[in-house]
Amino acid sequence: MEPFTKIKSIVTPLDKVNVDTDQIIPKQFLKLIQKTGFGQYLFYDWRYEKDGTPRKDFVLNESRYKDSKILLTRNNFGCGSSREHAAWALLDFGFRAIISTSFADIFYNNCFKNGILAIKVSEETLQKLFENTSEIEIDLEKQIISNDGTITSFEIEPHWKKILLEGLDDIAVTLQYNDEISKYENKQRNSKIRVS
Amino acid sequence: MTKTLFEKIWDSHVVLDEGNGRSLLYVDRHLVHEVTSPQAFDGLRIAKRKVRRTDLTFATMDHNVPTNNRSLPLVDQTSAMQIKTLERNCKDFGIELFDIDSPDQGIVHVIGPELGITLPGTTIVCGDSHTSTHGAFGALAFGIGTSDVEHVLATQCIWLEKPKTFEIRVEGKRKNPHAVTAKDIILSIIRKIGTAGGTGAAFEYRGEAISELSMEQRMTICNMSIEGGARAGLVAPDKKTFDYLRGRRYVPKNYDALVEYWQENLKTDSNVQFDKSFTLHADTIAPQVSWGTNPAMTVDVTGKVPFPEEYAQGSIEEEKAASKALQYMGLKPGTSITDIDLDRVFIGSCTNSRLEDLTEAARVVKGKKVSSKVRAMIVPGSQHVKRQAEELGLDRVFKDAGFEWRESGCSMCLGMNPDILSAGERCASTSNRNFEGRQGSGGRTHLVSPVMAAAAAIRGHFVDVRDLDLN
User: Fold this and answer.
1) Of A126, B96, B342, B432, whose Cβ has the fewest other Cβ atoms within 10 Å?
2) Exposure string (b/e) for B123-151, b if CB count within 10 Å is 16 or more?
3) Is B208 helix (H, G, I), strand (E, B) or coil?
4) Distance of CA B452 to CAs B218, B364, B369, B465, B466, Å?
5) Is residue A1 part of a domain?
6) From edge to edge, which strands make up the β-sheet containing B29-32?
7) Which candidate in A15, A28, A29, A31 is best for mutational testing of the B interface (most B CBs within 10 A)?
8) What is the extent of the structural domain holding A157?
9) Residue A34, domain member (yes or no)
10) Which residues contact B358 (CB under 8 A, 6 or more apart)?
């Protein structure tokens, strides 16, 4: 996984609440068996007309957001299906950070597992960001967003911060605790109420 | 210290506690399907890792499988590839697979309980958000992404932030239990708490109206916990739970000792303080119909399609979302729900495709005909359900009325197989999500119970099933 330290980019404002993962990546694209190549299908039904031409009224199609790495969106982003294809599509399209007031639980995890920084901010901060979608900088080490001279700090779980900063392999980290896992298993094996 | 049921299961599965709310939990059962697993197995291959506990891992194919004639080769080559990939992965890694031709094949959340893989007090994960279904047995069951599927395959453990505890009490009794179903209870809950109401929490459903539900009805409730924002939802196990599971194929040999332990331990202590609580009275619940593009956009069958400002209650964003939903759904505010005409009816999905769902729907259908304007289909949740229904003659009841009787799978709940809506088609569906395009690009989904769907198929529009003689 590519480490995440600092990014500077124009922000793409997707002004919607409760964006579900069916919208982020519709089901017809879940049949691929690799993790790459999903970016072209991101927000497919909102992004394209039925004949495949890009819809002029959809924000991702505006040329000024072409190289944006930061998505700004509203409450409960990523709700619904657990499909990690949603995170793969956002990453493949070029997003490395998403800012909202809240994220659905499974989607939130999926982001960090793929090196995407999901930042939760207050309603007030979010509103300010929507009102001024110029270039902003996100510094993960310092946990700050700099926007036009305004600096806002954000909270992040320490383990996700570490995994992102160092680009760690999550499974390798867990396997360091192999002895603890084996100990748990041995205890189960000798139990009268064994289920595993 | 007093504890909730959820906390007891959590505590007994902690392998390592980081001390900051995050723990490494042991996973007792891992269910795998074809859509969210290929990349996980690939990851194992690249890192030269094995599956740690093949004996706790079970696979089936359900999302992609066609529900018409299974003796024909698959037309969709990408689906065929995903199905073949699961077969190869299970063979290479030594995992038990209920494949497309297996007499045990079915929707992963239907076959888990049916085969006795699902057990009280266990932790169960699957790369599917509706894994919450298994919580009906008093298990801590939740959906995970593909990276976590790989993590569980390799380590049999998962890292989790401890969720908050959230009590959902449903007091009293339903007035007409054949007409007001478990589906109506859960839709009423979601409608009140919202689709993010349970974010960061695990629900425990309690109260008289929950206790009196059958196991299959409890599964319907727990299934849609995720639509209320919670990854998991539990019901404390009781005699119904233990009787349901006894004798099923994968239930452990020490079952009696387990039941004794579960009876003693798997319940929330009295006087326990939940982090959050919500109460609903069962006698106030009417049959529910969703009108919009998320499951909280739901009203009573006797109600009307709301005006956006009425739904939004002051939120500008919600008002915008409601306007967009009405536009997508092709509905005018103020329209009576019972005036909405339908093109399609789908009875199936991990929410409502079990034997009882089909039995209840058949009571409505028996001796009647599907409206000439409607195409209606029944997709049993598993091959077991299908066989049991056929033994009871339910297939004849449905076929005689003009329903299509299909093979088991996820089918039109998410339309990854050929069962989809065309743009603009309006469907009464017993599934769990009415998101834009969920059942087919441009398709319009109304979430309802099996009896509501069956009655809508006959009349061609929604009807209040409380007005039918169902007894």
Assistant:
1) B96
2) bbbbbbbbbbbbbbbbbbbbbbbbbbbbb
3) helix
4) 18, 9, 15, 6, 10
5) no
6) B96-98, B57-60, B29-32, B123-126, B140-143
7) A31
8) 6-195
9) yes
10) B347, B378, B380, B385, B389, B394, B398, B450
Beta pairing partners, A137 = A8, A146
**What is the number of structural domains in chain A?**
1
**What order do you get walking across the sheet with B164-171 strand by strand?**
B232-234, B201-206, B164-171, B276-281
pLDDT of B324: 97
Residue A163 lies in a domain: yes
Interface of A with B in 105-144 (CB under 8 A): 105-107, 109-110, 113-114
Question: For residue range B339-395, what is the model confidence (pLDDT) as tens digits?
Answer: 999 999 999 999 999 999 999 999 999 999 999 999 999 999 999 999 999 999 999
Q: Which residue, among B236, B204, B266, B271, has the nearest Cα to B2 in the 3D structure?
A: B271
Residues 91 to 150 of B: which have CB under 8 A from any A CB?
119, 121-122, 127-129, 143-148, 150
- The list of chain A residues with pLDDT below 50 reads none
Q: How far is A167 from chain B (nearest CA, A)?
A: 14
Q: Kindly report the CATH number assigned to the domain that includes residue A171.
A: 3.20.19.10
- Residue B220 has a pLDDT of 98
DSSP assigned state of B74: P
The residue count for chain B = 471
The three-class DSSP label of residue B403 is coil
Q: Could you tell me if residue A176 is inside a domain?
A: yes
State how far the Cα of B52 lies from the Cα of B7, in Å rounded to an integer. Answer: 26
For residue B15, give the nearest of A30, A74, A181 by CB distance.
Answer: A181
Q: d(Cα A153, Cα B223) in Å, to the nearest integer?
A: 37
pTM: 0.97
